[in-house]
Amino acid sequence: LLGPLYTLYPIYDKILHFFMPLMFTSIAFHMTHNLNLKRKWRIIFALFIVIGSVGLFEIAEYSLDYFFNLDLQGVTAKKFQEFGASLEVVQEPLDDTMIDMIFGVLGAILYSVCITLFVKKRRLSWVEQINVSCRASPLVSSVPVIPFPPLCCSL
Q1: Beta bridge pairs of residue 77
Q2: What letters, b where the CB count within 10 A reaches 16 and e where it falls short, cover 78-112?
């Protein structure tokens, strides 16, 4: 469905490999909410889960290339000429794999640093802050507060 974006915009692959681990780290961090761990260990746990999954994803990409010749590794771009378009290799498969892994790890680290700074800045957790603000509101003071997911005020 989004395959043409890879050939029209070679940077699209790098954007995906940066933002998907960033979002996956967020999901992994919030999935560990009920574990009996300190917040810093939840952040580290989520970070390493994502770093491992980035590596597994690249291994899967290599395996699909090797067994089914799908050409998932490497970056190709359409080169428009006078009489048509041709594909040109922009980045070799090994370089593509390493840069994809670097962007994945950077995305996971960025989320981990941001959540650490966000939590250190506040004394209450973000869920507790939402609960306090919801209880202070006269419109929803009688509505029960759900601590997780973040939409705590049901109407």
Answers
A1: 88
A2: beeeeeeeeeeebbebeebbeebbebbbebbbebb
Q: Which two tokens stand for residue 88?
A: 């040109």
Helix 39-68 vs helix 11-31: crossing angle, to nearest 10: 140
Alpha helix segments (H runs only) across the chain: 3-8, 11-31, 39-68, 93-121, 126-136
Q: How deeply is 43 buried, as exposed, middle or buried, from its count of CB atoms within 10 A (0-12, 13-18, 19+)? A: buried
pTM for this predicted structure: 0.71
**Using N-to-C axis directions, what is the helix angle for 39-68 and 93-121, rounded to 10°?**
160
HEC secondary structure over 78-115? EEEECCEEEEEEEECHHHHHHHHHHHHHHHHHHHHHHH
Per-residue pLDDT tens over the stretch 3-53: 777 777 878 889 999 999 999 999 999 888 888 888 889 999 999 999 999
Q: How far is CA 39 from CA 16, 24, 32, 35, 117, in A?
A: 27, 17, 9, 10, 12
